[in-house]
Amino acid sequence: MKEVIDYYDRFDEWGRLEREPLELRIYWHYMSRYLPASGHVFDNGAGPGQYALKLAQQGYEVTLNDLTPRLVEQARQKAKELEVLGKFRGFHSFNATDLTGLDDQQFDASLMLGPLYHLQREEDRCQAASELHRVTRSGGYVFVAMMTRTRHVMTSLLNPQSWKPNDTIEGIRTFLETGVFNHLDQGRFTGAYFYKLEEIEPFMEEHGFQCVKLVGSSSTAGLFQQEQLDYWRNQGDYAYDESIKLMAEMAGERSVLGLSPHVMYIGRRI
Description:
The chain is an alpha/beta fold and 270 residues long.
C-alpha cells in the first residue's frame, strides 16, 4: 500500500472536499437520517477527517482511522483547532483489511468512504468488508463508498489524455471488463477498483450487510459546469440551497447512480 500512502502524502485531500462540497452535503443529507441519535462512530479511511469532525461537532464519539499517517495527524490537528478533540476515542493508521486492536461490535455505526477504491484484489476488498462487519454492532448502520465503472468510462471518453491507458478503445474495453485501473502517468491517481452498480449490493450482502439505500455522491451535479452551478448560487442563498436539496433528493434515485463518480452504500449490519 506504499503507493497509496505516497499519493496521499502529496495530495490535498482536505482541499478536495472544499473544491467539491456537494459530496459532503449530499452524503450528510442521508447519513443524518440513519445515524443513531448518539453513540460511538467509526470513520475508517477518514483521510484528514472532514466527516469525523462533523460527527464530533454533532456530539458523537468518534474513532478515526486512515492508512496515511500524515492525514491522521492532520485530522488530529483539525480536531484541536475546532475544539472537539475530546470527542475522539482514538486516531489510528491501520490498513482497512486488518483492524486488529479494535474490538468486535465496538461501534454503533461505521463509515468506510475510501478504502475500497484502492483495494484492487478481490480478497482484500472482501477482508475490508469483513473487518467492517466485525467491528460494527449488530443492527448498526454502515456507510460505504465505491467508485462506479460506468462513470469512469464516461470520464475516459470525455478526457482520454487525462486517464491513460483509457485513451484507447482497447484500454477502455479492458477496464470495463475488469474494473481495474492503473494510471500510466506517474504521480496521478493511485491504482483503483471500480464497481459495476449491480455488484455493490451482492458484495455487501455476502459480507453480512442488508442494503437500505444507494446514494450518488454528486447526483445530477456531475452533469453541471461551474457556470451552471454559479447561476443558482447567484440567485441567492435560498435558491442555491434549494437546488442542492433537489440534487440530494435525486441522489437516491437509481436512475442517476451511474452518473456519479462515487456511490455510497447505506446498509445495516446483520
